[in-house]
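> call design_seq(struct)
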């Protein structure tokens, strides 16, 4: 249940302010890494993909926690979450005729769908 409150707060914040605050992203990294310590590389991998241009620092920090959760179901779950999040953001940009949209909500929804939360 706490995951849904956290996810809702992050999605709302990103949509309204186009920011993912540290007070919501950093504790999530610690919790995810504590909960699935063997899956830390998944979080590092997703975050590393976002270190280049195109997404904000909040998305990188969010990817560190979501990647850890996604890869707990296997490497294909991680790839699926990344692909689904990217596809959702691109499709929404095309449908809404916008050049950019907050990416955090797509990352969260994709991970929750793939992991079956």
């Amino acid at each position: 249940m706490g995951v849904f409150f956290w996810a809702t707060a992050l999605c709302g914040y990103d949509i309204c302010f186009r920011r993912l605050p540290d007070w919501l992203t950093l504790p999530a990294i610690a919790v995810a890494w504590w909960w699935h310590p063997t899956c830390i590389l998944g979080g590092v991998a997703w975050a590393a993909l976002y270190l280049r241009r195109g997404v904000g620092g909040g998305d990188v920090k969010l990817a560190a926690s979501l990647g850890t959760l996604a890869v707990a179901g296997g490497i294909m779950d991680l790839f699926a979450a990344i692909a689904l999040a990217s596809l959702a953001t691109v499709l929404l940009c095309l449908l809404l005729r916008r050049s950019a949209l907050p990416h955090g909500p797509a990352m969260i929804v994709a991970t929750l769908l793939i992991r079956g939360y």
